[in-house]
Amino acid sequence: MLRQHIRNAAFNVSIHDISILRKINWATAADDRADCAKKTTSLNSCDNFIRTFYPFESGFVLCGTHGLHPTCAEFLYNAEGVQRTFAGNGLAPFAQDIKAPFVYAANFLYTANAPHYSSPEPLILRKDTLRAGTNDILRTDRGERQFEGAQFVGLIENGHEILSFFSEPPSESEGCGLRRVARVGRVCRSDPGGQGKHQNEWTSFVKARLDCYIEEKDQDTLYFNQLASICPSTRSFFGAFRSQLAGLGASAVCMYSRATISRQMGAVFNNSRISTCPRAIGTYEHIFIRSNPLIQKRMNAAPIFVHYGQDRFQFILVQEDVIDLFGRRNTVLFIATDQGRVFKVVQNEEQTTASHVATFQVVQLQPSSPIQSISLHSEQLPNQQLATSLLVLTNNKIIRLPSSTCAHIFSCSQCLSLGDPECAWINHGAECVVISQNLHRRQYLNQELRNCPEIPVTTERPIVQSKET
């Protein structure tokens, strides 16, 4: 099931046939709407834009902007309507245009959010969802050393840690000529907070620069410094970046090791050798880390994929361990762009770079309907067959596409020269098919280009037009 949150409502949607299973109407209360109208000239801001979701045993909680008064509401699976509401400061943003990522782990909700309307400064917050009130909330310290004009991209669980990915202006000491730089921040899930007046502050927060760049001899370094999206895999993080250089039209994907980030960020603490998640022990170390959260060590990477052109990367999705007929493991990336397209990019285990194998034209470019997110869904078919779909969410629709372009290819050479590990050619049937949906015909499948009956030719990557659902 897919949950879509929009203005004044939330939808529970069946992925199988993209049908609405349940619609929950939750608009801004009259008193909050009236108070909102006094603060803004845009009545659109007084609606309830739902931004946060987390479950509990018999239901779930939604948190929304609620007319500039962030509010959370409990709902039950077996009952209609709001059961109760409570203050959502820090759990949902104040305005609909603020990106406030969250992650829910072991009954704790972690958010990157501004807890007060009067202060736009975002904080990393942790709330125990089993406790009422806000006294238990843990947060980063307020101040420019923690975040300065930060724009958050995502929060991701990493073992004993929660990692935050964001961008902000560089510090004076970095002096790199870039308007913004990418960062990764880190806190420990088990952090108990500081002592005395610092009891509600993290003792484990540090941040590091996240670099993605091309460096060549006798040429200026090309930085992809604008972080657009981040996606985890089992062992790594994949980041989608853009260059700030006007007119260049360059985007890139860089890969970072989970273990390396964890080790290097934990190494700055005194108990780094004896703790599963090092943090400041004692007031002196806490105050020092609190005043100097930026570590000197940078997380550097060279791109595994670069694109030059009109499309600018917006979101990235990773599919691991897609195995071809030779038994090779492939990492498949789906990259959504600001032009309404999704690129399919493949890196096999023998390569250090990735190749562009297909393009999906998902939506015609409209300012009112850009791509908001992408996800994958796998459905078990009879005879142990598997069908994988790409789900694309916009402001007003959900679009479902096959994850491969095999069915749109009509020659053996084109089918196999693209390098899509999902596709194979059936010689006796003369068709390009999805391997996972044709395992019962495995003995007839071919992924070897030299075994094609026709002479291989150079072909363009297929562009698949979506059908709206």
UniProtKB/TrEMBL annotation:
Pfam families, per database record: PSI, Sema
A single GO BP: semaphorin-plexin signaling pathway
Subcellular location(s) of the protein: Membrane
UniProt keyword annotation of Transcription regulation present: no
Transmembrane segments: none
Alphabetical list of InterPro entries matching this protein: Plexin_repeat, Semap_dom, Semap_dom_sf, Semaphorin, WD40/YVTN_repeat-like_dom_sf
This protein's GO CC annotations: plasma membrane
Record's keyword terms, sorted: Disulfide bond, Glycoprotein, Membrane
Statement: the UniProt record of this protein carries the keyword Glycoprotein: yes
Signal peptide (residue range): none
Domain of life of the source: Eukaryota
Gene Ontology MF terms in the entry: chemorepellent activity; semaphorin receptor binding
Domain (Sema) ranges: 1-403
Stated name of the protein: Sema domain-containing protein
